[in-house]
Amino acid sequence: MDPCPFVRLTVGNLALKVPVPAKPARTVIHPSSSPCFCKIKLKGFAPQTAVIPYIPPENNFPDAGQPQTLAATFHLNKEDIERLAGKSIFAGKICLKIHIFTGRTGATCGVNTGRILGKVSVPLDLTGTETRAVVFHNGWTAVGKDAKGSPASQFHVNVRAEPDPRFVFQFDGEPECSPQVFQIRGNIRQPVFTCNFSFRSTGDRHQRSRSLQSEQGSGRGWLSTFGSERERPGKERKGWSITVHDLSGSPVAAASMVTPFVASPGSDRVSRSNPGSWLILRPGEGTWKPWGRLEAWRERGPADGLGYRFELIPDMSAGSSVVLAESTLSTAKGGKFTIDLGSNNSNNGNGSARSGRGSSPGCSPRGGSGDFGFGLWPFGACRGFVMSARVEGEGKCSNPTVEVSVQHVSCTEDAAAYVALAAAVDLSMDACRLFSQKLRKELCPANDPLC
């Protein structure tokens, strides 16, 4: 499998030195009591906001023993780079703009509460960054206007770009329609997997995937650990399963609904307090082995959302797990389910990930000038982007597109596990629909009165 070129643009190591004058004045900024933040902008991308820590003027930054921090991340594919360069006033030049404010983040009555301190513009030349890392700026720069007898403030920032190649997969139809999955590279579409959607429930065991049935064997014991197949009173959706096969027909991953999606008493919605859940499974030693668990529910708010939490299960016997992603997707517009370990991106309705470390064997940390350090994670030494899956909102045709970082794929089963996870996220959008709404026939077992 050949990956697609991507570039990861990171902004970090933020710090601000503001000299405090000998004589207090009402117009002077006192950083010890006035928090600072910045808005980081790149044309064509949503702006990102980050807090700027204050550094006393006499301190050096960064210290050798001081952990380095990541403030913002932008993911660029080849088309993004070409688009940015084409729209730039300067041929081949792109600028990252950082607006620095004093005061707290947010707005009152639609007006920003922060006061502008200064602006920093960092020119970017992304030529060649698809194959090599480039540091565009790493150090201090003056911001703000000089006041009489007072020097300008100093702002520290590191801006770098590095290759982040990814495998891109696309479902050739909705997951419940048992589609093929293609790998995308430029204009080339190559089939790599097939999906088989089925029902795993007491009354519909004959509809289960034969490959799933044969591979599970004696490994059914894990069901009682993570969920239940028992009949539950009231409104529920249960027993959905999707198996991913390679082109030889061998099962290489699966997503199995192990906790039914049940309407809360007196309502038509799946609540956060009682979510449904999926196990993401990988084959091993003649049976299926749990790799991760996805929980999903319907969030209340000005606009309903699909709440989710994904956790890695590195050692089922020890009962340990690590939450890698927890956020919300718009049920009306859809969005991106994303696992980006170490990213400080805001949610913006597209989903986000908690800070953590990677989930695939064979990963190793990278070094280099201005590289961002992360604490050791007990299950590997990976960082950065892991995967994303684009899903549509309710009632819309959804052919999920899945991006997976090359560093997290060492075999076909690795890629298939992320494809199965993407299918589970997409199917959760239907599983969390209000129970007053009907589902399409592909999602309903025969003679189900709720469909």
Automatic annotation (TrEMBL):
Residues 228-238 have a biased composition (Basic and acidic residues). InterPro entries: DUF1005. Residues 342-364 have a biased composition (Low complexity). Residues 202-238, 340-365 are annotated as: Disordered. It holds the Pfam family DUF1005. It comes from the Eukaryota. This is Uncharacterized protein. The lineage of its organism: Eukaryota, Viridiplantae, Streptophyta, Embryophyta, Tracheophyta.
